[in-house]
């Protein structure tokens, strides 16, 4: 009896000691006996987590599609969006990838865990809560790993397949010289008409402009009609159709033909056209081609302008083109005031003088200005193309009327010299040049003004 009493008393004192040492309002975990605050499950957090995983069902690794060409991420079901790394837009996209599993828990917090930008990995740390045993709220933090997979979007795929355009303008000119095209290129650059083009392709007799919409192509055709004498034909081809929604997909083609006359061509007018131009001689020289064909009679110096509609109504051919010109030296000049032809005199042969020539190598070396070019796909260029381009540059130096419509930029790599060289070759003054600056663009895509030197 005494022994049992002592054991009972000892156990009572031990229980009283534990009750005194334990903080008020705490209970023991029913699994491990650790003192915890009371909760509906009467289990500590460690034991509760060992029994329940509220992140179960939420994938810990997810794939995200990324297009390297346009730097966009794929957002289901069919949208590609631009997102910066660790941005709110990219976080929202990542969360939408696991939207269905997350709907079963309460999302408390989400944020990116830093990863190397080139690792093709995105890590998102999530904090979630969920009601578990007997109404207890369990909170858990875990990381979801997103693997960035490369996938080309539909737009870029069509670009690579070269089947993305909806309209094309085929500009052609049946001449052996590209002076008119070089002039047209500068007008396109000056007025920013190349902004809406998807790509520009150069072929041996013209240029092809590709557009994503027919409206942009029509705007370009209108510009061409105002800048060069031309005519065009439009056609379209059915690509696909949807009979349920009554929608049709067409590809439009605009064939633009520029008059087959360029600067320094010797032409022969029809008698009717020559008569309508003030009875000028039929043999004339083309001095320039702008929005009209500018002709001069080498005998009387009478000038005339022929627009595109007049040319197509009374077409004429070129008798001689610049490649057929021969250079010679004039040793002596004399004025002939009257020529009387007699039966014995026979036919008098004479040459038509086109232009005065200068030392091309010296002019090219002293040229302290340059032009900008369109970014385009080129075929193989030969030495003849370079010679024709140099001819066009010389025309700009010699013809003030043409260069007024062209943006000419100062070439800082060439030292400034006098406006004329020793041989009297024409030069472009510094007052006519623009500084070669990076021209900014506003929201409308128009080019900003450049500073004059």
Description:
This protein has about 450 residues and is an alpha+beta fold. It folds into four domains: about 35-155, Nuclear Transport Factor 2, Chain: A; about 160-260; about 265-320; about 360-430, no CATH class. Helix content is about 25%, strand content about 25%. The protein has twelve helices and 20 strands. It has helices at about 1-20, 45-50, 90-95, 100, 155-160, 180-190, 215-225, 270-275, 310-315, 360-365, 385-400, 400-405; strands at about 25-30, 35, 60-65, 70-75, 80, 105-115, 120-130, 135-150, 165-175, 195-205, 205-210, 230-240, 245-260, 265-270, 285-290, 295, 305, 315-320, 370, 410. The strands form five sheets. A six-stranded mixed sheet has the order 5-4-3-8-7-6, sandwiched between helices. A five-stranded mixed sheet has the order 10-11-9-13-12. A five-stranded antiparallel sheet has the order 17-16-15-14-18. Strand 3 and strand 4 form a beta hairpin. The radius of gyration is 41 Å and the shape is elongated. The termini are far apart.
Spans of at least 5 consecutive residues whose pLDDT stays below 50 are 1-22, 341-349, 438-453
The CATH architecture of the largest domain can be given as Roll
Reading off the top of the CATH hierarchy, the class of the largest domain is best stated as Alpha Beta
Mean pLDDT: 80
**How large, in whole angstroms, is the Cα Rg?**
41 Å
| Intertermini distance | 120 Å
Q: So how many helices?
A: 12
Helix content: 10-25%
Number of domains: 4
Reported for the largest beta sheet, the result is: 6 strands, mixed
What form results from the Cα inertia axes?
A: elongated
